[in-house]
């Protein structure tokens, strides 16, 4: 009976992890497409800082709604109450600030890359996450996993090869630089957030999310004041918004919640690899929406990235 009960619990955890990871993959695959689609005549008609603020506000509201349901069904406990100490919440401004910069950069990088190219370069997150995972969380990565990281770099580079112009790579230097900075910011913020979340495993994930998103709202409000204050005051907060913009904001909010669920019930490495699979979905959809050309280099690079995903999963089982 004990063994049977343990097996049932394991199956339940596996099912929950699989659903969250699948949701994150689908949401991430559509993320780049919606950002590109939200442009008009090659530029953003809306303020990206207000869009980011609304993403954080929506995530905060969804976390609070989930908590309200829990309080109604289970009552308020030590692990799900919002009231807390400054020592507990003082760790959240760091990842909130890092995510702010990374989220703003993801809008501007599309001046240099298309949606499939963005998903390819986004895989550099895996490298930064793997290294920081080892440094911050003191968790050893197997030799197979390190080999998978090397293959990943090779795959990302191959997919960006351009045989139809004088440039060797499709993406210019500015695009690569922004991709690397975003990878470092995302990797550090992700691993740091995972360490915070798992420091107190019994703490309800929605409480932890709530405080992270509160600081996210504060920093994004500061970004609006610093970057778009005049535009917001003269044209309005929602100037330039369209249905695609609203869908993009909803997508970003749900993606953020899915990421935190993966961190709580799996780990950050699983998160970045689930988003890597989205690369293939983005490429296929972009063929129909934006006329993206699936070159041999992109196909080979995507194949190498997929092999690195498989090797990483094998290496994780052998740890």
TrEMBL record:
It is a multi-pass membrane protein. Keywords: Membrane, Transmembrane, Transmembrane helix. The keyword Transmembrane helix applies. Coiled coil: none annotated. The chain crosses the membrane at residues 19-37, 144-163, 175-197, 209-226, 238-260, 272-290, 296-314. The keyword Transmembrane applies. It is found in: Membrane. PANTHER family: NUCLEOTIDE-SUGAR TRANSMEMBRANE TRANSPORTER. NCBIfam families: nst. This is CMP-sialic acid transporter 4.
